[in-house]
Amino acid sequence: MDRVVTLVAAVREGLDDSTMDRVATALAERGAAVGRYEWLAAGKACDLPFTGVEDDTARALLEDLLAGTRIDGVVLPAANRRKRLLIADMDSTIVIGETLDEIAALAGIGEPVAEITRRAMNGELDFAGALRERVGLLAGQPAELVDRVLSGLELMPGARRLVATMRANGAHTLLVSGGFTAFTGKVRELVGFDHDEGNGLIVADGQLTGKVAEPILGREHKLHMLRTAAEARGLTPDDAAAIGDGANDLPMIQAAGLGVAYHAKPTVRAAARARIDHGDLTTLLYYQGYREEEIVGE
Known about the structure:
Order of helices and strands: EHEEEHEEHHHHHEHEEEHEHEHEH
Number of strands: 13
Shape: elongated
CATH topology of the domain at 1-79: Alpha-Beta Plaits
Structural class: alpha/beta
């Protein structure tokens, strides 16, 4: 069998044999040869091997069958499932929320900045221009606002386990963010990434200047990092997993062998071949075929 459907429920006991049987029957009715399904985590994650149906057909089938449930599903090649490179966005992917929006909220301008963020992450605005505009609104604000946001950072559920498990199995892990190095360095330490990159937020005399260091790290740099990190390790983009939620993540998501839109903006969800709409970041491990007992970390 050269293809596999993986289903992952957002909660334990959210997935059962009857759901797997429905998927198997639907694939068989479309002409697929279907193997026996195999549980990766009882009541939570399961693999179903198959062959003979195009990926787009199988994805559309899953879309229909899983509508109204809290189950994520993916269709992937059976070969090369466990990726040897992970490249992840930070805001709303590895950490909960948007750090720039949180700075703005403390400064009393949360709503206008959050609206610009929403439009930029949905691909309605140029990322670099939107970043400059949002940071410009913060000119003159005390730099200690950054420290206040840092002190309240919350990691996305499953972040540590995702990185720890992939590293334990030989993967190199990168945090590459359109956000700021003031946050990426801390998140790298908290989660265990090998490397981090982000934008520079310029501070002078204890105040935010309203300026961002140039050039701005955006969508093309994220794609560049995916390609160069793979090449440096004798890999190809097909050996990588990429995950993010915004439009500036799309190029790396679309280039990676396993590119995942994570609780993503509508345009990103529509353009990605794989999604996580309900579960936490351990879902990305199950998509790679990891069993529950193989997952390490907190």
